[in-house]
Amino acid sequence: MPDVNVLEGFAMVWASLALGVTLTALVRRRRPARSTGVDLTGTVVLRPIDSPTQQELLNLAEPVPAGVRQIVLCPFRPRLAAGVEWLASDPPVANRKLGHLQYAFAALRLPFERVVIVDGDVRIDEALLTNLVGGLDEGAAAAWAAPRPEAGGLARGVLVQSLHSFDVLAAIGPAPQAMCGKAVALGADAVEVLRTMPACAGEDLELSSRLHARGLPIKLAGQARIPGRAAGQLQRFTRWMQVLRAHRPGLFPAVPVFFACTPLLLPLAAVSGDVLTASIVAAVLVARTVVAALAERTEASPQAPWWWLAGEVVLLVAWVGALLRGGRVVWRGRTLELGPGGSISTPVLRPTAP
Fold it and tell me: Whole-angstrom Cα distance, residue 231 to residue 221?
């Protein structure tokens, strides 16, 4: 049985650290940069996709500004709106997205000085493209948009309200800067890095690391709107935790210690019975709710600012799942073995149950 004083001291120190991280997020959190008056002529938009859902087909039908080429990279030609191009791409690699992009760089006779890569589940519009390309015009080698699920619930709690939102991670995380590949613009230097990248999972994390190593700047620019409600969120977050562990093992323990610690601090404060510790944990609750409320201010349909707590529970469960599964990842019906740096060291290509 641990000594009561030791337990109280441990709980107080942990709660104080959690409060410090939360206050830092409040002070340093910034809205993604927004650009105006950007000339989008000559911009190429690549949409890597395998089996588009109905919502993704609707996203692909969204009009793009004049002078912008939108090219869908897919093994078969889906139903596409007028003006949307298709490149037949069926890469024989485990990371299909990276394979689609590297094939497009090789097959398309384009300069790729300003290329925007947008996942199929993201709704594209002029504001998104203007912000991303504007980030390149301002000197970034890569400009990316923070994912913003439009539907309420757990995904919004994690990706918008919690300290694991990419807006917050970009503000308080260690170098290299966190980058999400849902929607990203690449200049010529970044395209060359991605073109020669070896097979790996988590290509966005690997790209940010390689750009940082070369001294090439990365910029958060805009928001990537994700309509609809995604299924299998726990499995997706578990894969994210596994990829994080493979790419940045030093940052992996920070998830339960700092970013998803509130569900652990609440019972710990109750067990310790210390009034000061309970007060600090209460301050953590208030501060994180304020972070969530500020994040919801830009939403067309704001969600109640306490979904972050459910989001932290999901992150904790996903973190434990990643710890138990190790490097074995189930991805698109296949089982892969992740090595250091997200390398796919032993792909098991037989289909498995999801």
Answer: 27
Residue 283, H or E segment: helix 275-296
For the segment 175-187, the average pLDDT, to the nearest whole number, is 91
User: What's the CA angle centered on 192, arms 135 and 34, to 5 degrees?
Assistant: 10
DSSP code, position 343: B
Cβ-Cβ contacts under 8 Å for 173 (sequence gap 6 or more): 251
Give the whole-number percent of the chain exceeding pLDDT 90.
72
Asked if residue 3 has pLDDT above 70, the reply is no
> What token pair was written down for 252?
């992996």
Backbone angles phi, psi at 248, to 5 degrees: -135, 75
H/E element, 270: helix 262-272
d(CA 169, CA 1) in angstroms, rounded, equals 37
Asked whether the predicted pLDDT for residue 229 surpasses 80, the reply is: no
pLDDT at 2 (0 to 100) = 53
CB contact at 8 A, 11 and 268: yes
pLDDT of residue 298: 78
Tokens of 136: 């390149």
Phi, psi of 175 (to 5 degrees): -70, 150
User: What global pTM score does this model have?
Assistant: 0.92
What is the percent of the chain with per-residue pLDDT over 70, rounded to a whole number?
A: 95
**Alpha carbons 127 and 134: distance in angstroms, whole number:** 10
Kindly report, residue by residue over 37-70, the tens digit of the pLDDT. Answer: 899 999 999 999 998 999 999 999 999 999 999 9
Sign of CA dihedral 272, 276, 278, 280: negative
**Bridge partners, 71 (sequence order):** 46, 85
Name residues whose C-beta falls within 8 Å of residue 27's C-beta, 6 or more positions apart in sequence.
none
Q: Is 72 helix (H, G, I), strand (E, B) or coil?
A: strand
CA distances to 119, 159, 168, 178, 288 from 184, rounded to whole Å, are 9, 17, 18, 12, 28
Contact 334, 94 (CB under 8 A): yes
